[in-house]
Amino acid sequence: MKQPISRRALIVSTLAGFEMGNAASAAMLPLAVSLQQELSLALEKRQPLVVMVSLDGCPFCKVVRENYLLPLLQLEGLPIVQVDMRSQQLLRDFRGQSLSHDAQVRSWRIRLAPTVLFFGRQGREIAERLIGASLPDFYGAYLNDRLQQARAALS
Questions:
Q1: Coil, strand or helix: which one is 54?
Q2: Pairing of the two strands 80-84 and 49-54
Q3: How far is CA 132 from each of CA 52, 137, 151, rounded to the nearest angstrom?
Q4: Which has the least CB within 10 A, 65, 111, 130, 140?
Q5: pTM for the whole thing?
Q6: CA-CA distance, 18 to 12, in Å (whole number)?
Q7: What does 105-146 look like in DSSP terms, one character per residue?
Q8: Which of 149, 134, 147, 25 is nearest to 78 (CA)?
């Protein structure tokens, strides 16, 4: 079982957010293409699939993406993809059906961005959703708690 987010990763992610400035504004998570395949790859690593639901132009999404999720993807290799509200880009869901990012977001009944979801076997949510980003002082701890829940559910 993987350990909680390391103190080093949290420090690096926080510093990276401050140092990257405007260059980070273009930083993106990989967009979901096939949730079924992305989940399969995550489970091979014995990790949950983390999905960030984002909205173009959302400043809170930018903070969560760049300061918390991108460092986990880059430093720890955590399987993370992004699904965009209002986007008509197609993806395949956990059953292999084709639909738009926006339709997938609506099927999950998500109304607020950012929302971070944690998926396990059969595309089931295995930890409580992390909705919004209004308390940045505690966001890292909330994210860590959800990751621990998800990893424990996979064990």
A1: strand
A2: parallel
A3: 11, 13, 22
A4: 111
A5: 0.82
A6: 10
A7: HHHTT--SSSEEEEE-GGG-B-S--EE--S-HHHHHHHHHHH
A8: 147
Neighbours of 109 (CB within 10 A): 6
6-36 residue pLDDT tens:
444 443 343 344 333 333 444 789 999 999 9
For residue range 37-53, list pLDDT tens digits in order.
Answer: 999 999 999 999 999 99
CA 104 from centroid of its chain's CA atoms: 15
What whole-number distance in Å separates Cα of residue 111 and Cα of residue 122? 23
3-state secondary structure of 38: helix
